[in-house]
Amino acid sequence: MAKKKMKKILVIGSAGQIGSELTMALRKKYGNDNVIATGRKTKPSDEILNSGPFEYIDITKKETVEEVIKKYDIDTIYNMAAILSAVGEEKPDLCWHVNINGLLNILDLSVEYKLTRVFIPSSIAVFGPETPKENTPQDTILKPTTMYGITKVTGELLSEYYVRKYGLDVRGIRYPGIISSETLPGGGTTDYAVEIFYEAIKNKHYTCFVREDTVLPMMYMPDCIKATIDLMEADFKKLKHHCDFNVAAMSFSAGELAEEIKKYIPDFTCEYKPDFRQEIADSWPKTIDDSVARKEWGWKPSYDLSSMTKEMIEILQKRYEEGKL
Ligand code: AKB
Fold first, then answer.
1. Ligand 1 lined by 83 (C-beta under 6 Å)
2. Is 30 among the residues known to form the active site?
3. Closest by alpha carbon to 103, among 121, 76, 85?
């Protein structure tokens, strides 16, 4: 009997906040040699380098991606490379180039090499000031005011076009702010919700760049990884949506997060000095309706504000005591 061919997975952006943990989760699930990690410039963690294949690629240079697809006979891509919202406002051209021209390269190569499945990351940044802020529906007004948001709406529409026109199986999630203890996020508006933990443990003080009453949707990394892999494993026939799923886990204000951290570090203090990222945060929803994701592929989060905070503090405190933070 012919041996079943193993899935070969390409993770683009393995040095990034989500990509680093996603690479390791996929290696655990599908085998180290079947998950090819990639980065553009930044070297990924030793854990990634030592546990399986790694290649340097740049999604804006199509030939660098094509080479790796051919070399490893790739059949699935997780494209986690992106310029996030805050950097996107400082460098709008770069944001469009990476998030859209890069994405087009991935979609075109996926059609050309007949890949079986592609994951694209979208974001709550697809919403804008005119979108309902509470319990934001799946299908609603998409008129973002940031370049990042504009690239995310365009990316959703482009990917959906490839599903319809070429029969390519593309799937994607509108990520909220992601909180994690392994790799720091870079260049996003929700970064304060991660930085606050590191500063609370190291310095017992944090200067937050959004107002105390700023409420945004957030998710802890284990739920983010679960959502990503669960969506990619869902039965395509059951999906009415493909590239734009709302997913929710928790929503809290910056002040509520600081209060939760104080339960573990009583002398922690937080001050608030809003900068240009406040306007971005104010244009995004406060809470998300994810009933479509729950219905179409069984999404259900495990962590809330209190269980996430407890685990973040435990992990980072231990690392601090070992002199590794
Ligand atoms: C950002 O803040 O830009 C990202 C996002 C919500 O997509 N974390």
1. no
2. no
3. 121
Q: pLDDT tens across 158-207, in order?
A: 999 999 999 999 999 999 999 999 999 999 999 999 999 999 999 999 99
Residue 167 sits in a domain whose CATH number is 3.40.50.720
- Containing structural domain, residue 157: 9-177+219-246
Mean pLDDT to the nearest integer, 51-72: 98
Number of helices and strands (H, E) in the chain? Answer: 13, 12
Report the distance separating Cα 92 and Cα 94, nearest Å: 5
Instruction: Tell me: do 111 and 207 sit in the same domain.
Output: no
Which residue of 180, 183, 190 sits with most ligand 1 atoms within 8 Å of its CB, as the best mutation to test the pocket? 190
The pTM assigned to this predicted structure is: 0.97
Pair (162, 274) in one structural domain: no
CA distances 224 to 108, 175, 205, 209, Å, are 27, 8, 28, 24
189 lines ligand 1 (CB under 6 A): yes
Residue 42 contacts residue 81 (beta carbons within 8 Å):
no
pLDDT for 34-47, tens place per residue? 999 999 988 899 99
Please tell me the number of Cα atoms within 13 Å of 26 on its side-chain side: 31
- 83 with 47, same domain? yes
Same domain for 79 and 196: no
Distance CA(248)–CA(36), nearest Å, equals 29
Overall domain count for the chain: 2
